[in-house]
Amino acid sequence: MTARQTGMLLLLGAIWGAAFMLIKIALDDITPFTLVAVRIAFTAIILWATLRISGLNLPRDRHQWLNFASVGVFGLVVPFLLISWGQRLIPSSTTAILGATTPLFTALINIVTRAEEKINAERIIGLGIGFMGVMIAIGIAGATEGNIIGELCVLGAAVCYAISALYSRRVFSGMPPLIPSTGQMITSTAMLIPIALVWEGIPTAAPSMRSIIAMIILTVFCTAIAYILYYRLIATIGATKVSMVSYLVAPFGVIYGFVFLQEPISRNSIIGLVVIIVGILIAGGTWRSIVKRPTPTT
After folding, report:
1. pLDDT, tens digit (0-9, with 9 covering 90-100), for 73-131
2. Residue 221 is assigned to a structural domain of this protein
3. Separation CA 30–CA 211 (nearest Å)
4. What is the per-residue DSSP string for 117-170?
5. Host domain of residue 177
6. DSSP class of 77
7. Closest Cα partner for 188 from 16, 33, 22?
8. From the first residue on, what is the mean pLDDT of each consecutive set of 10 residues in the chain (298 residues)?
9. Are 227 and 168 within 8 A, CB to CB?
10. Residue-wise over 207-233: b if at least 16 C-beta within 10 A, else e?
């Protein structure tokens, strides 16, 4: 993994880390399922418009649309709904810790299914260090203060993300990142809107401007732009390495909460973030290019 790819992974973590703060603001006036449905629907529109401007077209192959729907189910619909339900039963710190298990499930599924990505000792060590960094940054106290059903919901979402990442790598290889991003958003919108209408009904009151702005930023940056970046990274460095972004999301969320919502930040959060970055550098092999000394010339 090159320094540029590592930087892109950090950027993706920073963008997705802001989602916690934005969701918290938006949920003041918008119900969870409605927020998810609107977020995905507007993202689908943005990505489709970007696709057309870029001169690209969505495939007409029915099999490819089934792939879009499958990835949408495991990468958006099911995990978003599981997390929305689970967060009602367990603390947010528990959600962050359990959500950070995505790379572990990705590596495990990768080994079981014998996918094309190679798992070596270096990557396993890096994954372990990254997970320890999450535990340091968030703390483990909240992990035992929750409802088992809520914890299983979040773990189920982590498994779904892992399946989605590996499946995307296989079926969308060589495809411009904008196409699968748009395809899965469109199919997910078709599934989520009916679920939101049945579960929560049509909203009867307009949300505040603060919530609307938060939802717009959440849609444009944390969903549309983030998923384009996500698929570009999957195509270049692989699903297992990209799944390590889960380690970055929680610490960045803590930092955003401190800066913009005046939430307290601990020394452990900073230490944890440093440990997380070290884990990513080791797992991705980037550390070798950093410590490698230039060959002397005569």
Report:
1. 999 999 988 887 777 777 666 677 777 778 778 777 877 776 555 667 777 888 788 88
2. yes
3. 8
4. SPP-HHHHHHHHHHHHHHHHHH-SGGGGSS-HHHHHHHHHHHHHHHHHHHHHHH
5. 3-290
6. I
7. 33
8. 87 88 83 88 92 91 93 91 77 70 77 65 81 73 62 87 86 86 94 89 86 91 87 80 78 81 72 79 66 52
9. no
10. beeebeebbebbbeebbbbbbbbbbbb
What's the Cα-to-Cα distance from 94 to each of 31, 82, 101, 143, rounded to whole Å?
21, 14, 11, 5
Look up tokens 């540029």; give the residue.
4
Query: Is residue 112 domain-resident?
Result: yes
- pTM here is 0.76
Residues 6+ apart with CB under 8 A from 144: none
Amino acid at 97: I
What's the total number of domains in the chain?
1
Q: Which tokens in the block code for residue 36?
A: 């998810």
Query: Is residue 295 domain-resident?
Result: no
- Dig out the tokens for 9 from the structure: 């992974």
Q: Is residue 219 part of a domain?
A: yes
Tokens of 229: 């970046």
Q: Please, what is the Cα angle at 270 between 88 and 138, to 5 degrees?
A: 25
